[in-house]
Backbone:
């Protein structure tokens, strides 16, 4: 009896150990999410934030310097071409203060001295020419009687010619000095203010609305200083600054969409123009980036009626699209050396498969070789997934 009990215990221990070894050595099964390789459209886009802008905007500037009266127009007010948008009272020319007057007087005295010096140089040059002419006449008489060689006469002729050129230069110097004196004397003129200079009106250059009012209260402005901005908000364009590496993939006339502009609908647009020159812009991380402005035109301006100038929108510009391609989720792709690869679900096991990828988006990629339609691939494969391991599809897939 005792021996039978001992044998049973030994058998029980052996069975337990065998079960534990079987459990330890049994291949582990991993739960995975899968997706199906399918055919369908694929659209590759460049996504960036954009800003609306009135295409034809006019900056109304002060035609003269003076005191601009209070501008009653408010941003959003409608104006017509020729409407008076501002009034300016030209200011009286300011008189010279004591310091400026003294400087002007000193400048006049200096110019008078320069003119006197130039005139003296002219007189000296003329006297030198007269002396050279007398010497030439004397030399000609001596040559005629044989008392002087003929080559000496040629030297006297050269002296006369050089002297005449010096006289011309002196005359030009006198004219320049006289002009400098006249300009210096102009600064001493004390302007007199007219009794009534009147008011200068500033008119709207085109139909539209007031976009910005740069001056509201009465103030003094210089000639050419901006006062208002006028434009038609119905004629909007979208300005997007793209990285130069993305801008080279965008073509004029490319299709685009406008999203996140305040409504749930998506607006269609097209690329109207790509600026030929880029600019440097600092990113949020403090990195210098080369950017290029790309202008988009909404396909239906009436759909943008709720938008105004300088509104923020999200833009997607199409760089490539096809209606029927074999595609796989990008979350299923991983690098294996120099190639792309995926794990294909085959008879309950993960099989590593090399693939060739074409165009990609953040969510999908075009498959050019390695997969066929209806295959199931593992998405988001973890570090535990290896070629040949057992897997089971999760309930989420």
Residues:
């Amino acid at each position: 009896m005792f021996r039978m009990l001992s044998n049973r215990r030994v058998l029980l221990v052996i069975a337990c150990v065998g079960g534990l070894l079987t459990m330890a050595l049994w291949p582990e099964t991993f739960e995975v999410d899968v997706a199906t390789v399918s055919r369908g459209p694929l659209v590759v886009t460049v996504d960036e934030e954009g800003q609306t802008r009135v295409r034809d905007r006019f900056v109304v500037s002060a035609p003269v310097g003076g005191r601009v009266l209070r501008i009653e127009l408010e941003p959003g007010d409608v104006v017509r071409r020729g409407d008076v948008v501002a009034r300016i009272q030209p200011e009286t020319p300011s008189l010279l203060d004591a310091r400026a007057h003294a400087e002007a007087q000193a400048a006049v005295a200096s110019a008078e001295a320069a003119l006197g010096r130039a005139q003296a140089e002219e007189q000296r040059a003329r006297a030198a020419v007269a002396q050279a002419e007398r010497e030439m006449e004397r030399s000609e008489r001596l040559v005629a009687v044989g008392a002087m060689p003929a080559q000496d006469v040629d030297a006297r002729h050269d002296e006369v010619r050089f002297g005449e050129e010096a006289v011309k230069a002196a005359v030009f110097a006198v004219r320049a000095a006289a002009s400098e004196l006249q300009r210096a004397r102009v600064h001493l003129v004390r302007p007199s203010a007219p009794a009534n200079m009147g008011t200068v009106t500033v008119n709207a250059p085109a139909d539209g609305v007031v976009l910005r009012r740069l001056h509201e209260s009465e103030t003094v402005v210089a000639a050419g200083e901006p006062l208002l901005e006028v434009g038609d908000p119905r004629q909007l364009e979208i300005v997007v600054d793209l990285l130069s590496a993305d801008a080279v993939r965008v073509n004029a006339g490319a299709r685009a969409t406008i999203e996140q502009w305040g409504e749930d609908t998506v607006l269609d647009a097209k690329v109207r123009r790509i600026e030929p020159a880029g600019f440097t812009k600092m990113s949020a991380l403090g990195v210098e980036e080369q950017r290029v402005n790309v202008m988009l035109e909404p396909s239906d301006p009436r759909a943008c009626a709720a938008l105004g100038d300088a509104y923020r929108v999200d833009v997607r510009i199409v760089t490539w699209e096809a209606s029927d391609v074999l595609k796989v989720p990008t979350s299923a792709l991983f690098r294996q050396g120099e190639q792309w690869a995926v794990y294909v679900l085959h008879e309950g096991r993960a099989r590593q498969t090399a693939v060739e990828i074409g165009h990609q988006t953040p969510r999908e990629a075009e498959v050019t070789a390695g997969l066929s339609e209806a295959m199931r691939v593992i998405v988001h494969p973890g570090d535990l997934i290896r070629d040949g391991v057992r897997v089971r599809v999760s309930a989420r897939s």
